[in-house]
Design brief:
The protein is of the alpha/beta class and 251 residues long. 43% of the residues lie in helices and 16% in strands. It contains eleven helices and eight strands. Helix 10 (217-224) links the parallel strand 7 (209-212) and strand 8 (231-234). Helix 1 (16-29) runs parallel beside helix 2, helix 1 (16-29) runs parallel beside helix 11 and helix 5 (107-119) packs across helix 7 (140-152). The structure holds 2-phosphoglycolic acid (PGA).
């Protein structure tokens, strides 16, 4: 059975005290969610240590939103995978479309980031997805396939056990425009096939593939009911514990 996951990506939101309170609210509400659904909060770097204290010993796991593509040294402003692990992170998101779009994150850099994350014992939530022009041109399959091949095909079947894929169509992120359950299922099944082509059917069956993009309590159930959708990566709606947990209840 694949791990079901609902992960909140807080992005650049909340002050430290607000984030600590949000984490406390998520922990308090988490009991309502079926035990087989993994709950993750991905916070800004500044929040990781205090939020690690809040989630310690609870069912909620901690994630970063990014990590450096270098091990350590003179890289002012960067945060390494080793630092994240020592702060209490179990996961890091990598390759979010906002990082690709605004900070020039390339697939080549992502290979380095994934390597360092895994080497430091972190699990990775790797984001892929097409933008609106690519969707309208019917290129969404090609775009996702290339992103997965360029990054994940550099890793082994064993390493895939520590990697979660998040399909996030850029046109659905923060826009209120969700992919339909059919659109999402279609591409999730395709992504699973791209994983199977390299790593075999068994690894593909075990790989969790999350949907992200304007996921909310009202549409989570329909999305999560799809055969190849194993949960969600939640942006805006993860900033309210009630909505975040409401989405997780979508199972
Ligand atoms: P959204 O963001 O839920 O606000 O659309 C999702 C994401 O970017 O991870």
């Amino acid at each position: 059975m694949r791990q079901k996951i609902v992960a909140g990506n807080w992005k650049m939101n909340t002050t430290v005290p607000e984030g600590v309170q949000l984490a406390k609210d998520v922990v308090a509400a988490a009991a309502a969610v079926p035990a087989d659904v993994k709950l993750i909060v991905a916070t800004p770097f500044t929040h990781l240590c205090p939020v690690a204290e809040v989630v310690k010993g609870t069912r909620v796991s901690l994630s970063a939103e990014n990590c450096a593509d270098k091990e350590k040294g003179a890289y002012t402003g960067e945060v390494s995978a080793a630092m994240l692990a020592s702060a209490g992170c179990e996961y890091t998101i990598l390759g979010h479309s906002e990082r690709r779009q605004y900070y020039g994150e390339t697939d080549a850099k992502l290979v380095e980031k994934v390597k360092l994350a895994l080497a430091n014992g972190l699990k990775v939530i790797l984001c892929v997805g097409e933008n609106l022009d690519e969707r309208e041109a019917g290129k969404h399959f090609d775009v996702c396939e290339a992103q997965i091949k360029n990054v994940l095909y550099n890793f082994s079947a064993e390493e895939m056990a520590s990697i979660v894929i998040a399909y996030e169509p850029v046109w659905a992120i923060g826009t209120g425009k969700t992919a339909t359950a059919e659109q999402a299922q279609e591409i999730h099944a395709f992504i699973r096939k791209v994983v199977a082509d390299k790593f075999g059917a068994e690894v593909a069956e075990q790989t969790s593939i999350l949907y992200g993009g304007s996921c909310k309590p009202s549409n989570a159930h329909e999305l999560f009911a799809q055969k190849d959708i194993d949960g969600g990566l939640i942006g805006g709606a993860s900033l309210k514990a009630e909505d975040f947990i409401g989405i997780a209840l979508g199972y």
